Amino acid sequence: METEAETRRTWAEISLDNIAHNMHAIRAALPAGTKFLGVVKADAYGHGAIPVARRLETEGADYLAVACLDEALALRSAGIQAPVLILGYTPPECVPELIARRVTQALGSAADAAAYAAAARACGGTLRVHIKMDTGMSRLGFSWEDAADIAAACRLPELEPEGIFTHFAMSDLPGDAAAKSYTEMQFARFTGTIAALEQAGVRFQIRHCANSGAVVNYVEMTALDMARPGILLYGYGDSSGRLGLRPCMRLMSRVCAVHQYAAGTRVSYGGTFTTSRETRMGVVPAGYADGLHRCISNRCAFAVPGGMAPQRGRICMDMCMIDLTDLPEAGLGSPVEIFGETAGLDAMAEAAGTITCELLCSVSRRVPRVYR
User: Fold this and answer.
1) SS3 state at 113
2) Separation CA 84–CA 62 (nearest Å)
3) Are 144 and 189 a contacting pair, CB within 8 Å?
């Protein structure tokens, strides 16, 4: 239950039940026997990595994924025992800690393979790795053409090559013919290289490539050993609506002041909004320091009692203004849903010219998370 201190200004309500619902809804759409990896990097997309990871572990997730060593160690320090994969780079000098804390490391080059193996040898351990293949993301990973280098890395005795994976660059663009062709090319490169490695005697327990976009748009690509949904887990990214996902975060605030302004009154920095009539304006104590991007000023609306209140004037660092003229039910102290169940995050992302992932991750640390 929330405390008065947590909800007296601006707060984020997190539904762990919706996290669990989304996990099972996604899992039901996967082929039978497909493992489930829950992506909890970036503090679980702003939802809180430790509470989310605990719930996923309880619900039977097979793996968790983070971006870096610090994120992995935070999970282990919280007592989370599920396998954890670091998707990004870790310096070789950290290999002893990876081994000691049972953390799996992505491996994307021959140079890293040699360095990790040497570090593991020096501490007398074996490092579990997932081979990262670059099939067209042009970021990290062995080139899909480097089967010989991958095979050589997998034969280093200090490394345990449990898995192999790639990441799609355009799988989240349904209806785009060029994106479809590119994704299919990436998948063909991935499976073709795996086949070549198997002919060379290198096999993996876990093969995974199905990110959120692939889970929704390319069901055939989920028929490997594990799926790796990220934003889907948090209730976004399913444009088809077939999975029945639920948003897991509501960004909430309250009306902290109400003023009457005459027609012709300029509002906030730069005077970018001018009232066209007598206006009843509410002040909301949430601004860009809380994660409400300034670029959506005058381009969004929040849910209040009675309907949607248009946001007016430039969003400030710590507050913003909303038009309550046509919403007599809303007043001083009224709850304001900035985004969540009623005020859609997709619409806000479109107004900001970005994606829902960025807006969720932008909710700042000063905003308390209240768990349901």
Assistant:
1) helix
2) 9
3) yes
Give the pTM. Answer: 0.95
Active site residues: 41, 269
CB crowding 66-84: b at 16 or more within 10 Å, else e: bbebebbbbbeeeebebbb
Phi, psi of 256 (to 5 degrees): -105, -10
Q: How far is CA 346 from CA 237, 250, 352, in A?
A: 9, 13, 10
DSSP string, 117-143: HHHHHHHT--EEEEEEEESSS-SSSEE
Q: Residue type at 37?
A: L
| Nearest residue to 228 (alpha-carbon basis) of 71, 360, 89, 106 | 106
pLDDT tens, residue by residue, 98-124 = 999 999 999 999 999 999 999 999 999
Beta strands in the chain (DSSP E): 11-14, 35-39, 63-66, 84-86, 103-107, 127-134, 142-143, 159-166, 206-210, 226-227, 249-254, 257-261, 266-267, 273-274, 279-284, 301-304, 307-312, 320-323, 335-339, 369-371
What tokens were used for 2?
A: 């929330």
| DSSP H helix total and E strand total for the chain | 11, 20
> ∠ CA 168-232-362 to the nearest 5 degrees?
95
Strand 63-66 and strand 35-39: the pairing is: parallel
pLDDT digits (tens, 9 = 90+) for 50-79: 999 999 999 999 999 999 999 999 999 999
Residue partners of 187: CB distance under 8 A and separation at least 6: 135, 168, 209, 218, 221
